[in-house]
Design a protein that fits this description.
With 329 residues, this protein is α/β, with parallel strands linked by helices. The chain folds into 2 domains: 218 residues, Rossmann fold; 91 residues, Rossmann fold (3-Layer(aba) Sandwich), CATH 3.40.50. A 6-stranded mixed β-sheet has the order 1-2-10-7-8-9, sandwiched between helices. A 4-stranded parallel β-sheet has the order 5-4-3-6, with helices on both faces. Helix 6 links the parallel strand 4 and strand 5. Helix 3 crosses helix 5, helix 9 packs across helix 11 and helix 12 packs across helix 13. The structure holds pyridoxal-5'-phosphate (PLP). Pyridoxal-5'-phosphate binds next to helix 9 and helix 13.
């Protein structure tokens, strides 16, 4: 089964009223700094603070009445789980969210506040994923993968539809890359609408499963390591159907960024662009900083994928980079 531009357009109509159309903000400071025209796609402004709401809404709204009646189960590093929880609550559907023991407390609290059942299923995401699937089977709940479901991918693709409508001159998109659902969906939309567009993936240095799999030409397993980009960690299950082949086909360049440059980008975004980015989202700015000479295009959209970072943690990082007193009011 192929995922098409039509599916993404249908997703866009379907998710209206749950996910919002986010602004594409001209990034004044980054534009000045880089000599390229930089825009920020502000997915941080989704009600749950991340683009994952698009895919979750699209996947859940396509379920049959029987499936909706039974409920859904998912495994998530946080943002997907939070999105599933939000949509399920809005539509009155039962949702169980499985997480690994490594998920930060701020994200767990975010999900619990939405009134869903959160279960710690394994020590890392690969283990949690296996346990989650078997729980879904035995309890008759519909399993929704964070990145390898056709409905989720089509939902994430709506980000690219919006970007190209908001600014048709965009010739490069820098997209944080983990399981590849966002990249896959955006690629189907963007490359069909504008075949010459360049798609750049960015991941953290340690444990970048999709980056390494693309390089190897086959799925590789990684050791999950703690990272500021916690939304990008975790492996890709061996039964991958959609996201890996689509990323293999469409990703033009894929880069890895260091923890230090992710931290710097989070502080920079707050200081100069006045936006809150979690580590996974700040990788797009880090990529621009580390690899500017290798990044094609003059009109570049950075996908600011999420803002779910604990405020004290962000402020610590901020103070590590900007010790001077900020005198702007
Ligand atoms: C999920 C997520 C990503 C990566 O999306 P994939 O579809 O897994 O590649 C990037 N940034 C944030 C904030 C996320 O939550």
């Amino acid at each position: 089964m192929d995922i098409t531009l039509q599916d993404i357009k249908a997703a866009r109509d379907r998710i209206q009223g749950i996910a919002v159309q986010t602004p594409l903000k001209p990034a004044y400071s980054l534009t000045e700094r880089t000599g390229r025209n930089i825009w920020l796609k502000m997915e941080t402004m989704q009600p749950t603070g991340a683009f994952k709401l698009r895919g979750a809404a699209n996947a859940i709204m396509q379920l049959s009445p029987e499936q909706k009646q039974a409920g859904v189960l998912t495994m998530s590093t946080g943002n997907h789980g939070k999105a599933i929880a939000y949509v399920a609550k809005k539509l009155g559907i039962r949702a169980v969210i499985c997480i690994s023991a490594q998920v930060p407390e701020v994200k767990i609290q975010g999900m619990k506040k939405l009134g869903v059942e959160v279960r710690v299923a394994g020590k890392d995401q690969d283990e949690a994923d296996i346990e989650a699937r078997s729980m879904a089977q035995s309890e008759g709940l519909f399993f929704i993968s964070a990145f390898d479901s056709a409905g989720v991918i089509a939902g994430q693709g709506t980000v690219a539809l919006e970007v190209l409508e908001q600014e048709p001159s965009i010739d490069t998109m820098i997209i944080p890359l983990s399981g590849g659902g966002l990249m896959a969906g955006m690629a189907i939309a963007a490359k069909n609408i504008k075949p010459g567009i360049r798609l750049v993936g960015v991941s953290m240095e340690q444990g970048a499963a999709m980056h390494l799999s693309i390089q190897a030409g086959q799925l590789v397993t990684v050791d999950e390591q703690p990272s500021l980009a916690d939304a990008l960690t975790g492996g890709i299950p061996a039964d991958n159907q959609f996201s890996f082949p689509l990323c293999q086909q469409y990703v033009d360049r894929s880069f890895l960024v260091s923890e230090a440059s992710i931290a710097k980008a989070m502080a920079y975004a707050l200081r100069w662009e006045r936006i809150v980015l979690e580590g996974g989202a700040a990788t797009s700015i880090a990529c621009l900083e580390e690899y500017l000479d290798e990044i094609p295009g003059q009109n570049i959209a950075l996908i600011c994928t999420g803002d779910n970072v604990a405020v004290p943690k962000l402020l610590d990082i901020y103070h590590q980079h900007y010790a001077e007193k900020d005198t702007r009011s």
